[in-house]
Amino acid sequence: MKKLLLTLILPLLIYGQEQPKVGLVLSGGGAKGFAHIGVLKELDNLGIQIDYIGGTSMGAIIGGMYASGYSPEQIERIITDIDFLSVIQDNISREDKSYFEKAFLEKTAVSLPIKNGSIGLPLGLSKGQNVLNFLTELLAPVDAVDDFSKLPIPFFCVATDTETGEEVVLEKGSLPLALRASASFPSLLNPVEVENRLLMDGGVANNFPVDRMQEKGLDIIIGVNVQGTLLKREELSSVASLLSQIVNFQMYKKSAKQVKRLDIHIHPNINEYTVVSFDKKGEIVNEGVKSVKPYLKVLKELAKRQVNKKVRKEITYKEKQFLIDRIILKGNKYYTQDYILGKLRLKEGDSVSYRDISKKVNTLTASKNFQRIDYTLKKSFKGKKLEVVVKENDIKSFLSLGVHYDLLYKTGVLLNYNQKKILSSNDEISLDVVVGDDIRYDFQYFIDNGFLLSYGVSSRFNSFETDVLFNENNLNKINVDYRDFTNRIFGQTILNKRTAFGIGLEFKNLKISSDTFLTNNEETVFDSSNYVSSFAFLNIDTYNKSMFPTKGFLVNANFKWFMWSNRDNSLNDFANGSVGFNQYSQVDALFSFAKTFWEKFTFLNSYQFGATLGEEDSEIFDYRVGGYNQNYINNFIPFYGYDISSLTDQSFLKSEFHLRYQPFKKNYISFIANYGRVAKNVFRRGELLKDTKSGYGVGYGLETIIGPIELKYTWSPDHNDKFLLFNLGFWF
């Protein structure tokens, strides 16, 4: 009935206007706001000229892009290409993370801040840094505009003051920052500071700002409303749904009043979608297109009356270099300008692009020293002026949680405590405590001096039970309790966050015992000794992901000289009765790389070797090859097709070929082949390929928030044993 009256009455109003001015209001609604694109496509096709645009949240983002000169088709391509969930979650490129974080902190699923001794919750799931970077790059063609009424189409958006709950209309300043503020969905994105006011999502105060558009004096106002409806009694089945209902009471009540102010109310049929249906972009856009059809007649009449139409010039974003002739830094108290610009690797006179700026800001974000980094670029005399406003992070400590299961360590729950700035401005600690079938801990303290010499100490206790082959003459493996207590002090230098080279000293206490070796179940101790050694290492890690990498390479090279041990002769190798302790060395290295082709296929190849130099008088530190764990310690080496420690000797060679197929997002099918040789000296002339072992595997893996979940079936033609392997969660 309402649409019928509109069809009859609105043409009379239109004919009363020589050149009717049209305002367009786009409501907030998260992913449902993609329907705005479909509506804009239809309005463009009909020849409707929009003279003013206003919006809230996603409506502000879509409206701001259209007001800046992007066509609906361009906007659709942009939102189709971007992974919104990745942007919202502030996923930082692994290459931007510190070496310490990549080495020790990529094991947990949840991280909670600790402030004043209490564990809290973050203001939002994300700081929204990637959202601001995305908007800044996208709106680069209009970065000179700080009065939104001067955009190709005049524009405003709405945010909410977090302290007072008041509505804030944003019409001047930085357009990317204004859109970021308007779309700061509570609990999802952190609030944003604009003109000394902390702002959050405009939907809280005015999700459908038709009244603000009325104040602009437009003749015709079109509103696109993508809000849902209040839930029915039977739909209120959880605390989350009840809280959502409470929040929506006032929002929908106010929006109902706003609808009455409209001349044309377009309400797409998108009730089956939610604010986070980012994977349904195409469907939601199509619903927006369909929602215009009931109004085609009146809209065509409106288009006819708009005789003197402006020629709309579309903009395109092209990556180009520009000069930074001035840098203004605000908000820093503890961190100096030299520190911040050093992290940004930026100085006045540099030539950069918007993409470069985003990457540099992400590098600063990855330091976790800042709660927020806002920046604007404005035209200046010779190039552009960069203004960076930072809010330093007063939270230095975090408690993180992880879970894991594998067939060796069984179930484990990880509690990680991470703190910065304990004794100096550039030190950091990480303490892992694993509670489960095997109690473990891993402590790291590190003073990061970057390229200059850095220092650290570490302490580790690790224990597990497994069947170990100590001597190939034994018919059966022995179930042993393996306990390792290792302390290290080291110095290292770090290059480009990817490479670390260092030297140090190690003190190790090792106890290996069994209750099943003797028939009377008395404990048999194979080793209970202290070892002192010096070591050197080289680590290079350019993998783009810690789990299921698709590109990059990894190098781990180690040298260790066993200098001293208090090993009691009676505890020496039970099999051959060796006596005394001889100094000896071991060297090992791993090189692996990943390369993706045809988008869905990734080839991973690795080569690894280990060798003992000098006369080792015990089998305790022989290389023990077999199994599949990525959390092995000491000289345990994974090898598909063989059980843990099935192959043992003083040296080994191994190569692995891994083809991985991704049928759909975060799902992987793997085909694995590995080949190796284990002997006293695998490099003996003429024997390099002698008695080569082989193993194969197929598997399926999932990439989840708690880490990889993998199931693999492995076998070897060398024997009849088959193995079904399973692991869940990040490896620790």
Automatic annotation (TrEMBL):
GO biological process terms on file: lipid catabolic process
An annotated Gene Ontology molecular function: hydrolase activity
Short sequence motif named GXSXG, residue ranges: 55-59
Top-rank taxon: Bacteria
UniProt subcellular location: Membrane
Domain PNPLA: residue ranges: 24-214
Catalytic machinery residues: S57 (nucleophile), D201 (proton acceptor)
Principal place of residence: membrane
Database matches in InterPro entries: Acyl_Trfase/lysoPLipase, NTE, Omp85-like_dom, PNPLA_dom, POTRA
Keywords: Hydrolase, Lipid degradation, Lipid metabolism, Membrane
Name of this protein: Patatin-like phospholipase
Chain positions of motif GXGXXG: 28-33
GO cellular component: membrane
Motif DGA/G location, chain numbering: 201-203
UniProt cross-references to PROSITE patterns, sorted A to Z: PNPLA, POTRA
PANTHER family: NEUROPATHY TARGET ESTERASE SWS, NEUROPATHY TARGET ESTERASE/SWISS CHEESE D.MELANOGASTER
Domain POTRA, first and last residues per copy: 322-393
